[in-house]
């Protein structure tokens, strides 16, 4: 992930305070009764409205988390530069009527300012200097949602810090109930495949234990292919992807069911590469011959409640019909 530094001269001229520019423009003043003081995971002390009315999610997963936690949203929200709209597996009713602007991988802080948020949630805590820039626009809760761990851990802490434990627990309970139901049906049908998350990039087939797919596999108790290098908790044992050249694809033998990323427009990477379609080793793999590979919107892998639910649905349909 990358970003382009943005000058903040215009931002500083517009709003010199480290509180919400939107709140200032509305003419409201905060009191001890309608604000909350807290320290973010980045060590910044912020004061936020007890009930924000214009929350903004800096990345798409942040927006989904805001919705899950029951925040009222700013009327304009960021999307990825390569998207035309919000991911189709997000809750569409809550997104209805919202305007969008591209904000990743290039950051558009001017557009964030124009959205007039009174609170910002940002999971891009790995980005140096970004938090300080966002704090000049509105009080920002920054955390690192992409540290290689289980995204639920950092979001659970955020929910606690923000006083939204009840909303978070509601999602956890419904997700765990779905997991229990699907596991029981898999056991009853004696369905226990070896699964893998497989992609294709720059002439090589790749697999790894990164993000939501690995977590869902682990939650369901599915056996993951050794090449995924997964821990029992569904986390990557290392940061490295397994990258297979055309001559090494036989190492995928023994995998029963594959899940594979697709573009927002539905383009499936492993189906589009001409060389892969002409590779005899690939074509002879059992999951290819049996059609046991299932596309999913690649944005699901970046942890968020709707992404987790949506990928679980993909797995449920693939294994249980």
Automatic annotation (TrEMBL):
| Organism classification | Bacteria, Bacillati, Actinomycetota, Actinomycetes, Micrococcales
Annotated SUPFAM superfamilies: Helical backbone' metal receptor
- Similarity comment: family membership: Belongs to the bacterial solute-binding protein 8 family.
Q: Give the domain of life.
A: Bacteria
Its localization reads: Cell envelope
Report the InterPro entries cross-referenced here. ABC_transptr_periplasmic_BD, Bact_iron-sidero_bind
The principal location of this protein is other
Per the UniProt entry, the signal peptide is 1-25
The UniProt entry, under PANTHER family, shows:
IRON III DICITRATE-BINDING PERIPLASMIC PROTEIN (PTHR30532), IRON(3+)-HYDROXAMATE-BINDING PROTEIN FHUD (PTHR30532:SF1)
Q: Which Pfam families match?
A: Peripla_BP_2 (PF01497)
Q: Which organism is it from?
A: Microbacterium galbinum
Enumerate the spans annotated as Fe/B12 periplasmic-binding domain: 54-321
**What's the name of the protein?**
ABC transporter substrate-binding protein
């Amino acid at each position: 992930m990358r970003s382009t530094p943005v000058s903040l001269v215009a931002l500083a001229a517009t709003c010199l305070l480290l509180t919400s520019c939107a709140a200032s423009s509305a003419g409201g003043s905060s009191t001890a009764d309608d604000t909350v003081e807290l320290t973010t995971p980045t060590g910044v002390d912020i004061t936020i409205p007890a009930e924000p009315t214009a929350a903004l999610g800096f990345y798409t997963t942040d927006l989904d988390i805001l919705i899950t936690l029951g925040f009222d949203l700013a009327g304009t929200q960021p999307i990825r530069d390569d998207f035309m709209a919000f991911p189709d597996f997000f809750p569409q009713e809550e997104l209805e009527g919202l305007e969008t602007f591209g904000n990743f991988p290039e950051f558009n802080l001017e557009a964030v300012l124009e959205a007039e948020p009174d609170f910002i949630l940002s999971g891009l805590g790995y980005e140096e200097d970004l938090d300080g820039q966002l704090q000049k626009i509105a009080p920002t809760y920054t955390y690192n949602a992409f540290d290689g761990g289980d995204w639920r851990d950092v979001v659970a802490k955020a929910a606690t810090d923000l006083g939204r434990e009840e909303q978070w627990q509601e999602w956890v309970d419904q997700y765990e109930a779905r997991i229990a139901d699907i596991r029981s049906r898999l056991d009853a049908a004696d369905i226990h495949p070896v699964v893998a998350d497989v992609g294709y990039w720059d002439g090589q087939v790749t697999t790894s234990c990164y993000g939501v797919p690995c977590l869902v596999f682990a939650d369901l108790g599915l056996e993951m292919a050794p090449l995924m290098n997964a821990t029992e908790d569904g986390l990557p044992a290392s940061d490295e992807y397994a990258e297979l050249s055309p001559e090494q694809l036989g190492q995928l033998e023994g995998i029963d069911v594959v899940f594979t990323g697709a573009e927002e427009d539905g383009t499936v990477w492993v189906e589009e590469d001409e060389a892969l379609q002409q590779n005899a080793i690939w074509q002879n793999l059992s999951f290819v011959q049996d059609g046991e590979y299932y596309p999913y919107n690649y944005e699901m892998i970046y942890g968020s409640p709707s992404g987790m639910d949506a990928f679980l649905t993909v797995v449920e349909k693939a294994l249980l019909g």
